[in-house]
Amino acid sequence: MQELKEASKRPMSFVATVKAVLWSFFGVRKKSAYEEDTASLNPLHVIIAGVLAAIIFIVILVSVVKLVVAK
What we know:
The chain is an all-alpha fold. The chain has one domain (2-70). Helix content is 80%, strand content 0%. It is built from four helices and no strands. The protein has helices spanning 2-7, 14-26, 31-40, 43-70.
């Protein structure tokens, strides 16, 4: 429990976390950048950014499918 409290106080900004999450969606990342992110990412920010990115991805997919099916 103490480790989680310490991890949540990490200094990385939410914008940098979103960038790291988007790179993980793409699936291409340098090992050095990955290690740097894992050392400085706030776990709460990662969860929030991941859920938001997944929702946006699903909305885009559904919109594209509706557009294609409508024609």
